[in-house]
Amino acid sequence: MRVLIVGAGGREHALASVIAKSKDCEALYCIGSNAGLEEIATTAAISLSDFPAITDFALKNSIDFAVIGPDDALVGGIVDVLEAKGIPCFGPTKLAARLEGSKAFAKEFMKRHHIPTPSYQVFTEINEAKTYVRTCTFPLVLKADGLALGKGVIIAQDLAEAEQTLDSMMVDAVFGNSGKTVVVEEFVTGPEVSLLVLTDGTVVKPLVSCMDHKRAFDNDEGPNTGGMGVIAPNPFYTESIAKTCLQRIVLPTINAMQWEGTPFMGCLFFGLMLTPNGPVVIEYNCRFGDPEAEAALTLLEGDALEILQACRNKSLGQIEVACKDGSACSVTVASGGYPVSYEKGKKITISALPESVTIFHAGTTLKDNGDVVTSGGRVLHVVGQAKTLKEAISLAYEGVAAISFEGKQYRGDIGKKALPEEV
Ligand code: AMP
Ligand code: GLY
Fold it and tell me: Measured from the CB, is residue 294 less than 6 Å from ligand 2?
């Protein structure tokens, strides 16, 4: 089988790495590139938004199966385009990807189907939005409707900040069309869980639960990022909470998407918050999380290609999807200054790694002279896998210590709040 991966970040390197190990994978191709992908795939420098060029590439290389990584390609409808040309894909159609592509759609969908989510109002008129926020209590959550590179959620602490945010989203259009519609949402609290499930539209197989660390600096300080580290499983996601979430959130979502005539096939990511009143959905993502994928795929048992194909072929019920025992910890190593501004082109060296440590490349480039240099904000994801969470964390940090480049930045406390206090 000839497999194409669309996308070239840490998530896609993790997907490529597990797929490359499949007994059925004869050849692996990738749209986009990094130094890790170069080692295991034939890469093509094609823009992820150029669907005709991606389709041509897939047809020329007789691709049997395409796995789509990034949200913007999915929301833009790449699966519909490739499938129309006879190329089977792993990932949702454009209509199903609206769960991530439009927060207003997602909220209205949840309301229609009684799926627990914080209360909200949707606005397309700035004056109506401003009148409404004057009646609200703070903090208050303001969300740009569309994709905004992970920056479209603002937690306004007071009325002035809320009005300013509405102006920048709806009038100044800092997120372009994505912010023309705004969701104003109730602020809720509790531990967050990233839950990734695989589905063929009907059958659901959850992957290991994850805990992301979104803020740039230790103790959850600093700006939001794409993700500075993940531990899995998430200790807050107990068996009984998992059961509740499956019954009240996951299955109702999958069933309702099917009922509405837009079945969701692929990996559906539930951003959950375990509030004092029970678990609620704070977001859906229509794809593997990044860096959740790096940890969850490391703990996935079995043949990944076979599992992803079973989603596409509506046969997920016929195969087992299991997670390895133990824990994984993924620490993101970023460029100095990320996520605000950073330099690229810093030479990376990696000394000997302990066994059970895997490095997934994100923003790296292999130069003609063989050097590997930084080429993005998030550079490498270092995953430790072990019997216990504590060992997994310490292995990941041994891996981080083996990496050198100028400006290397990472959080030192990934997983700390999941470990019992040491005395
Ligand atoms: P998102 O981009 O939707 O993942 O949101 C980014 C972060 O904003 C989430 O990880 C939460 O920490 C926070 N957040 C989103 N919605 C809410 C909410 N209704 N109440 C409190 N925090 C929220
Ligand atoms: N790590 C969160 C995301 O992928 O959106």
Answer: no
Helix (H, G, I), strand (E, B) or coil at 403: strand
Report the CATH number at residue 168. 3.30.1490
- The finding on whether 188 has its CB within 6 A of some atom of ligand 1 is yes
State the ligand closest to the CA atom of 285: 2
Give residue 422's pLDDT.
64
- Measured in Å, residue 232 CA sits from the centre of ligand 2 at 14
Q: Is any ligand 2 atom within 6 A of the Cβ of residue 185?
A: no
Residue 191, preceding peptide bond in cis (omega within 30° of 0): no
* 129 and 23 in a common domain: no
Tell me how many domains the chain contains: 4
Q: Is residue 114 part of a domain?
A: no
Q: Which residue is closest in CA terms to ligand 2's atom 2? A: 289
List Cβ neighbours of 259 (8 Å cut-off, separation of 6 or more): none
Q: Is 290 in the pocket of ligand 2 (CB under 6 A)?
A: yes
* Per-residue pLDDT, 238: 97
Same domain assignment for residues 156 and 51: no
User: How many CA atoms are closer than 13 Å to the CA of 62, on its beta-carbon side?
Assistant: 4
Number of residues that this document lists for the chain: 423
Using 50 as the pLDDT threshold, list the residues of the chain that sit under it: none
